[in-house]
Write a sequence for this structure.
């Protein structure tokens, strides 16, 4: 009886060739720029070590910009989580036709990465002062949303714009968690006399809570770090951290690159904390589902 030959094993070093491009990309465009920002935050114009840049972050206008950015991120994350969860639950657990799931997830995958100048232009063309929807509401229904207090170049205008990519991102992340809810759990709850509300309050939501809270943290980091969309939409009309940072690094009046590095370092800290919370809570939710 012929013996089967042992499977050939590739050299250990060859196994790393597939990830070399990714490692180089991460090194050149993520790690090295991040380290440059961190080092620059602790240097002065002469290249010496200083803590003045971090102390200057306590200036009222910078504190206000961080506060506004945090408020926009919280508002867009909260609304994005709520609306995205309801949409995902309607598709996964509701009675919507199964054929709606594929198009929704496909659109969410595209919309979650649609940001920057194209997104800002799309909202200006739609909800600007002479945007399509603004003019249709005025001509057909006699409703002037700007006379009622709406302004696209404001806090709520920027929050509404962020929802375009926050809601799809929520759908993409929470859908697998909803798929993990086992039918046996609902049947067991119903056999014990629990109502649908009691099942969600005592069984489903406690299991989904780590995923929901983790996704909220991820959406917060996603909104807090958005730069191009805010700058293209509001310019200097809304004082948020990315716009203030741009003014310090590239501006002609407020130019102070090292203060800009310190602001960027502050953004890294905030988004890093939010992402760490997301990773920790995500691991806990995966253990629940298993």
């Amino acid at each position: 009886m012929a013996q089967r030959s042992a499977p050939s094993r590739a050299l250990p070093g060859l196994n790393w060739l597939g990830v070399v491009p990714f490692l180089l990309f991460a090194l050149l465009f993520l790690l090295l720029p991040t380290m440059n920002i961190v080092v620059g935050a602790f240097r002065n114009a002469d290249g010496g070590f200083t803590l003045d840049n971090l102390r200057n972050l306590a200036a009222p206008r910078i504190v206000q910009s961080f506060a506004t950015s945090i408020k926009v991120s919280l508002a867009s994350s909260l609304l994005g989580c709520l609306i995205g969860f309801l949409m995902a639950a309607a598709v996964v657990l509701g009675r919507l036709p199964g054929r709606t799931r594929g198009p929704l997830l496909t659109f969410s995958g595209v919309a979650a990465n649609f940001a920057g100048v194209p997104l800002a232009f799309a909202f200006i063309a739609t909800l600007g002062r002479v945007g399509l929807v603004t003019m249709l509401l005025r001509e057909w229904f006699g409703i002037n949303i700007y006379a009622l207090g709406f302004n696209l170049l404001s806090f709520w205008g920027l929050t509404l714009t962020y929802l375009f990519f926050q809601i799809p991102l929520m759908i993409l992340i929470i859908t697998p968690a909803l798929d993990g809810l086992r039918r046996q759990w609902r049947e067991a709850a119903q056999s014990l006399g629990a109502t649908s509300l009691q099942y969600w309050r005592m069984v489903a939501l406690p299991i989904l809570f780590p995923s929901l809270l983790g996704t909220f943290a991820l959406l917060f980091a996603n909104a807090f770090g958005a730069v191009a969309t805010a700058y293209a939409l509001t310019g200097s009309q809304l004082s948020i951290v990315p716009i203030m940072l741009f003014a310090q690094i590239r501006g002609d009046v407020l130019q102070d690159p090292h203060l800009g590095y310190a602001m960027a370092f502050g953004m890294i800290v905030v988004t890093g904390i939010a992402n760490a919370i997301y990773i920790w809570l995500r691991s806990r939710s995966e253990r629940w589902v298993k």
